[in-house]
Design a protein that fits this description.
single chain, binds magnesium ion, six-stranded mixed sheet, 32% helix, alpha/beta, globular, binds adenosine-5'-triphosphate, 230 residues, Rossmann fold
């Protein structure tokens, strides 16, 4: 088992370029205390996903460092980074298999009971029980059994069961009916509790609830503060 971490995250003078001479991040400095929720906002191409890519260690910085609990993530194994940093992507990845397996994908040793608990916590249990075979219902990668909102709730259940200390969430932009929207907001609150979270935020409600909003522009942080301050 890996040592438990608190979940303090810092970006220190982070510089990155995908192509030589075209910096995507130009010296990002950001300190986040364990448990805080940070909303990342900014125009397309401003560097939001790039910061998250570096936090997952999909790439290494050209300069500077990403640290978790003060430790440069390059000095620990990829496995330990990936086990502590969870990602919920915009395009929720549903694979062909049962609903149960899709939730369990977050942690393969989870019991059936763990799966149900996670689904209940994000209010997905009722719609799952309404499906023809409940948790055993087979879904397809591109199938339409599930609505966008339902897919999102499943991805939250999957993240909840994985239980990472640091969570990255690329919020979906798809329009969702009001009732599902409220469910998602409630589920999100539960998912964020006790974790350090970075949300590439599109919903006003998410931005309003964040502890801090960080505004990016052309690879730099141009503003940050609470919703009231900005
Ligand atoms: P969006 O809101 O559209 O998701 P973003 O803020 O997430 O935008 P990034 O994806 O971080 O923006 O992109 C930052 C810069 O890096 C942009 O100039 C983009 O063109 C470039 N970029 C992103 N991914 C790659 C890549 N895989 N290869 C080359 N350049 C990339
Ligand atoms: Mg992006």
């Amino acid at each position: 088992p890996l040592p438990a971490i608190r979940g303090d995250v810092s970006f220190e003078n982070l510089v990155f370029e995908y192509e030589k001479g075209r910096p995507a991040l130009k010296g990002i400095n950001l300190n986040v205390k364990a448990g805080q929720t940070i909303a990342l906002v900014g125009h397309t191409g401003s560097g939001k996903s790039t910061i998250m890519n570096l936090l997952c260690r999909f790439y290494d910085p050209v300069q500077g460092a990403v640290k978790i609990d003060g430790i440069d993530i390059r000095s620990v194994t990829l496995d330990s980074v990936r086990s502590q940093v969870g990602v919920v992507l915009q395009d929720t990845f549903i694979f062909s298999g049962s609903i149960r397996d899709n939730i369990r994908f977050g942690r393969l040793d989870a019991t059936d009971d763990d799966v149900v608990q996670a689904a209940k916590a994000v209010d997905a249990h009722d719609f799952i029980m309404d499906l023809p075979d409940g948790y055993d219902t087979q879904v397809q990668e591109r199938g339409s059994v599930l609505s966008m909102g339902q897919r999102q709730l499943l991805s939250f259940a999957r993240a909840l069961i994985a239980d990472p200390r640091v969570l990255i969430l690329d919020e979906a932009t798809a329009s969702i009916d009001t009732e599902t929207e409220l469910k998602i907001q409630e589920a999100l609150k539960k998912l964020l509790m006790g974790r350090t979270s970075f949300i590439v935020a599109h919903r006003l409600s998410t931005i309003r609830n964040a502890d801090r909003i960080v505004v990016l522009d052309h690879g730099s942080i141009v503003e940050q503060g609470t919703h009231d301050e900005l």
